[in-house]
Please model this.
Amino acid sequence: MTSIPAPTPRVHTPLRLLGAAAHLVFLGFYGTAVFTLLSILLATGLGLALVLGIGALFLLGFVYVLFGAAYLETARVEGLYGFGMPMLRARRSPKRGFSGFLHTVWLQFVDGGMWRAVAHLAIATVLGWIAFFLATAIVQAIAIAFSPLYASGGVVEMIGFTYSVAVAPAVGIVVAILSLAGLVGLAMLHGVLARVLIAPIREAQLAAAARDASTQRADAIRASDVERTRIERDLHDGVQPRLVSVGMTLGLAQQKIDTDPHAAKALVAEAHTSTKAAITELRQLARGIHASVLDDRGLDAALSAVASRSHIPVSLDVRMPTRAGRDAEAAVYFAIAESLTNAAKHSRATEARVTVRGRPDGGELWARVEDNGIGGARVLPGGGLDGIQNRITAIGGTARLDSPTGGPTSLEVSVPCAS
Model:
């Protein structure tokens, strides 16, 4: 079924023109204050850039005041015209540490949507002063039009010009009409500029959302491929040889059952033991696909079971005020279980720490796994860490690996609770 795009809202209705005119008069003062503050922050930051890094604080403030001004401008335009835009969001770097912080600031500084909104605010500020002048002229013109009722001396003054009381009403009416027409024209120009500068932000955000959806789809496919390969490998390397061995053992027992009952009995016992081991391996394999305790008792209980089976001691700290959703909990469970398995196999760690926090206000489930091993972990195609990243990204989350040579290794994942 083809979706019908929402109609573009009309920006030149009488109420919106009136609202735009009122906004412009306000923006003349508000915009001046904002750009004055930005100029002070920028000048101070550049002037003190070499003084103990103090200037960097002012430049940081400059970037985020820019973002705040752009956010408010976008919200103002959306409230006035209803373009259906999501609000601007602060950019965030996937990197960690101080370099990640600097990268985050840089990403925010070069955000095209932010600069579009700031440019719109700058133009609207100039138009605002013109609108303020025209609004003042309208008020004075109306007063001049009624001047015969109160003027004394036979003359009146308006905007530096002196008029006779006899012609003052006509002059006032003409000036009021021209000023009102100019104010309406400015309001219409404001709507056009909003459509040109602000509305494309929505298109860019929708395009980015489409790219993210494509990335999530590709990661979901890769995650399913990696999971299928892992299951095939576990079956081929573990359960399948054991079942073949059971079959061969039972075959030998069948051959000896008449000639050597005692040997046949021992072979059947051996096959029984191997069958129980195969059942255990199948149960562990099924638990790796999805833990039933996760649905029954929640993430805390499921992770407690994982920690109890770990070959290295695990310190577990789970704080979740509410359940986070089946997909979110399953993804975090898989990431933690796979991380602990990798730590036990490759890191030479003697302990591991798992921290999980539910953030209902932010709608996120966050987890961190850290071990004291030798580090050097890398994401390899088809590997366990690759599977973690694919599975987390597939539901709209983020995964960050930090594993310098010499350790420690930490993995942080964050997934939306609504997933």
